[in-house]
Amino acid sequence: MGEKMGLSKRYEFVLLFDVENGNPNGDPDAGNMPRLDAETGCGLVTDVSIKRKVRNYVELAKQGEPSYDIYVKEAAVLNNLNKEAFANYPDIELKEKKPDKMEAKHKKDQLMLSRWMCDKYYDIRAFGAVMTTGVNCGQVRGPVQFSFAKSIDPISPQEITITRMAVTNERDAEKERTMGRKSIVPYGLYRMEGFVSAPLANQTNFGEEDLELLWSALLNMFDHDRSAARGKMATQKLIIFEHSTVLGNAPAHKLFNLVKVTRKSGVDIARSFDDYEMLIGEAPQGVTIIERL
Amino acid sequence: MGYGIKLRVWGEYACFTRPEMKVERVSYDVMTPSAARGIFEAIHWKPAIRWVIDRIHVLNPIRFENIRRNEVESKASGRKKVIYAAEERQQRASLVLKNVQYIIEAHFELTEQSGEEDTAEKHYNIFLRRARQGQCFHRPYFGNREFPVNFDLLEEDAEMMKYSNVHTGEIDLGYILLDQTYHVNDDGETVEVIPHFFRARMINGVIEVPKLQEVNR
Q1: CA distance linking residue B124 with residue B129, whole number of Å
Q2: Number of neighbours of residue A130 by Cβ within 10 angstroms
Q3: Do B60 and B100 meet the contact criterion of CB atoms below 8 Å apart?
Q4: Is A270 helix (H, G, I), strand (E, B) or coil?
Q5: Which of A158, A274, B41, B55 has its CA 20 to 30 Å from the CA of residue A169?
Q6: Which GO terms describe its biological process (chain B) (predicted)?
Q7: pLDDT digits (tens, 9 = 90+) for A96-137
């Protein structure tokens, strides 16, 4: 593994993604209805929901490549079933690869262990992790930080009732069919803001290649996350602010304010990305705006 | 010390988790001095200095919102290959603050680890320079990393007056976390963490933060 090309610049980014007739992120407190900001009526997608998709994308794109493993996995990926067999025998793993638990009592061994974890797992390198190796749990703070995504306009979720021509239990046989429910957002354009800290990247060995992979994950993640619930989701724009220095050249909130997304005049109800217009202001000195997609 | 700094911070969400309700996280009504210190450290910190929070001005009304998310129950470990999110799922709610804005007044003290080249002027100016330009070591956050902090340096006292106060009178916020002291052994490992609490009173929107020594008496 060794040292990579470290990050020498701070980044912020704005991700615009939309959903058509789907549920981008269900709220477990509201019977899996799309998440809503109760005060504004705008839709929400949590940071962890997007992180999940980034992890899934990296797992698919970098399957089997060393140092691109994903630590927090969704068991649905078929390939994991094979690996699960190994997971049933944790003792074997332990002796082959890592120092024994007791050895990690010392600070330097802990650092070595967390570095080892960072090198092996992309998600730990990017997002960080609370590690319990050894007596003191080491904590890795990753450079990549997401905030909640919020829709530009209030969304109007709909409950759609669907039927199934079969039943699950025999005692219901005379019913012949069961009814189900699906909640969808007819259309919603969401905006997420995120940060990449160069000093933290250098602490977890998150290099230039890793950053490039993050961008491609953000651009492509929805293409590999199709399901009955999601409908049509797509990344519409990724706007990256690249500072020319490690610590950055301008306040983040000023940069985020440069990207204005509004419904086009004359459009009462937005039903596609074309119904919106995006204006990007001029970058302050020392900041480059990179538009992807 | 003449090196007081006023920083305006704001954000859409915040969660300053109460230690007694941290499984299903419930935020304190206001930012804790400990969280405020974390914001300063995210902008500039060296072992030579220690940030001390003097006052917290609460500018926005205190409002809560509930968010339930899927979380995993275990922590990462070298002995484990992966965590299967579907098998270790916990649905946890967080009662978070919405639309927060504070002015934090703070200063720093030099610690015993400061060398000859560590003058107060130097660290003060580094901090000012970074805060003015919006620079930070890592993006500061309100309690949890998904709640990023926007910050602005207030350089003139007059600027404080622009932010009118919505809280009037005296509000008792009960006991809240002041900060934690970490006892570190020779190898740099944390041996003991001691939390300190104080009775927070908000008078016309301003919380006076006591010194650690006063709380320990």
Answers
A1: 9
A2: 13
A3: yes
A4: coil
A5: A158
A6: defense response to virus; maintenance of CRISPR repeat elements
A7: 444 444 444 566 777 777 788 888 889 999 999 887 654 444
List the single residue in A84, A107, A150 with the smallest CB-CB distance to B189. Answer: A107
B176 part of a folded domain: no
Output the pLDDT for position A94: 41
**B68 CB burial (10 A radius; 0-12, 13-18, 19+):** middle
Q: Indicate the angle between helix axes A47-61 and A208-220, nearest 10 degrees.
A: 110
What percent of chain A is modeled with pLDDT above 70? 84
Residues of B with CB below 8 A from A64's CB? none
By the 10 Å C-beta count (0-12 exposed, 13-18 middle, 19+ buried), B101 is classed as middle
Query: Any chain A CB within 8 A of the CB of B120?
Result: no
Q: Of A107, A137, A245, which is closest to B188 when you measure between CB atoms?
A: A107
Domain-located, residue B191: no
Residues in chain B closer than 8 A to A28 (CB atoms): 68-70, 91
User: Crossing angle for the helix pair B120-133 and B33-43, nearest 10 degrees?
Assistant: 90
φ, ψ dihedrals at A259, nearest 5°: -95, 110
Outline where B44-172 has alpha helix (H).
120-133, 157-161
Mark out the alpha helices in A88-190 (DSSP H runs).
Answer: 90-97, 107-120, 122-127
Report the C-alpha dihedral over residues B72, B74, B78, B83, rounded to 10 degrees. Answer: -30
CA of B101: how far to CAs of A227, A250, A283, B149, in Å? 39, 20, 26, 10
The DSSP call for residue A166 is S
Whether residue A77 contacts residue A52, with contact meaning beta carbons closer than 8 Å, is answered with no
Domain count, chain B: 1
pLDDT tens per residue across span B16-60: 999 999 889 999 999 999 999 999 999 999 999 999 999 999 999
Return residues 231-290 of A near B (CB < 8 Å).
Answer: 245, 247-254
Whether B49 is in a domain gets the answer yes
Which domain covers residue B100, as residue numbers?
5-163
Residue of B nearest to A29 (CA): B68
CATH number at residue B34: 3.30.70.2660
Exposure letters A64-90 (e unless 16+ CB within 10 A, then b): eeebbbbbbbeeeeeebeeeeeeeeee
Q: Which two tokens stand for residue B183?
A: 């006892």
Could you say which of B68, B84, B93 has the minimum Cβ distance to residue A75? B84
Interface check for B138 against chain A (CB to CB < 8 A): the answer is yes
Q: Is residue B126 part of a domain?
A: yes
